[in-house]
Structure formats: C-alpha cells, structure tokens
C-alpha cells in the first residue's frame, strides 16, 4: 500500500510526516473555535478519512505534524472567496448566511515557511466579506 511506503520512508530516514487535515474531523457543534485537543466527531466520510489519516500519521511517528485547515481559499480552484467575488461582480446584491463560523485559510499561508496557528480567531462567512 502507498501509505506503508510513506511510513517506511519516515521510519528509515527518521523524518516527520506532515498531514494536511481539516476541521471536518469535528462535528461543528462548538460555539467557539476548536482547540487541537478537542474531541473529534466527524460527520462525513471525508472527515472520518482525514481523522484516520491523522491517527495513522501519529501512530507511525508521534512527532508527525497535523495541520487542520478550514475554508481554504486561493486564486486556484473553486472556493468561497472566488465564488463571492464572482457573484458580487455579476449581481447588485448577494445573500450570505450568517450562522457559519470558521478560520479562513489562505492556501499559500500553509505552504511556506510561515505556518502559524490561524485558530486564534474566527469569523462568519458574512463577516469574511465585510
């Protein structure tokens, strides 16, 4: 299996494994941003598979790094920011829900040397457009 090759590589070269995960490992019922030690409870196959990846990474090397992202956006692919920019250029008024909160993650922000804890604050999808 592919994951076994990564595990063996990490063990042989004593390297850390970096697993990009998601906030979907949680159930979404918290009223404040999740802390990394919060109890997980994925509600989808996607969230469950990401959680399993976290567990395997830590099992193979307890020094592995788990990065949980949410609301990832960039100039590539489909994402909330690009959708809103497009809709705002097409329509005079755009409706946005005000009951979803998260920590938007700029894709380039976790791809370089300056990886920081972005879970210090959160906003609603509505406020992210203000």
What can you tell me about this protein's structure?
Helix 2 links the parallel strand 1 and strand 2 (about 65-70). Strands 1-2 form a two-stranded parallel ribbon. A two-stranded parallel ribbon has the order 3-5. The protein is elongated and about 60 Å long. It has about 130 residues and is an alpha/beta fold. Helices cover about 30% and strands about 15% of the residues.
DSSP, total strands: 6
Rg over C-alpha atoms, rounded to the nearest angstrom? 17 Å
Largest sheet, in brief, is: 2 strands, parallel
What is the share of helical residues?
25-40%
How far the N terminus sits from the C terminus, by CA atoms, comes to 46 Å
**Structural classification:** alpha/beta
Strand order, sheet with most strands? 1-2
H and E order = HEHEEHEEE
Number of helices: 3
Please indicate the percent range of residues in DSSP E strands (runs of 2 or more). Answer: 5-15%
| pLDDT averaged residue by residue | 81
> Could you name the ranges where pLDDT drops below 50 across 5 or more consecutive residues?
125-129
- Please state the overall shape, judged from the principal axes of the Cα atoms: elongated
Task: Please give the structural blueprint.
Blueprint: H1 2-12, E1 18-22, H2 45-60, E2 65-69, E3 72-73, H3 80-90, E4 101-102, E5 105-106, E6 123-124
Parallel strand pairs: 1-2, 3-5
Antiparallel strand pairs: 4-6
Descriptive keywords:
single chain; 130 residues; two-stranded parallel ribbon; 3 helices; 6 strands; 29% helix
């Amino acid at each position: 299996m592919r994951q076994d090759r990564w595990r063996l590589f990490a063990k042989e070269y004593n390297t850390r494994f970096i697993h990009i995960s998601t906030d979907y490992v949680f159930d979404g019922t918290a009223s404040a941003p999740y802390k990394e030690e919060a109890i997980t409870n994925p509600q989808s196959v996607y969230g469950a598979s990401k959680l399993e990846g976290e567990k395997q990474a830590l099992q193979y090397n307890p020094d592995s790094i788990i990065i949980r992202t949410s609301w990832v956006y960039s100039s590539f692919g489909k994402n909330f920011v690009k959708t809103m920019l497009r809709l705002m250029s097409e329509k005079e008024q755009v409706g946005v829900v005000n009951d979803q909160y998260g920590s938007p993650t700029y894709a380039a922000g976790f791809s370089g040397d300056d990886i920081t804890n972005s879970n210090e604050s959160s906003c609603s999808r509505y406020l992210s457009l203000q």
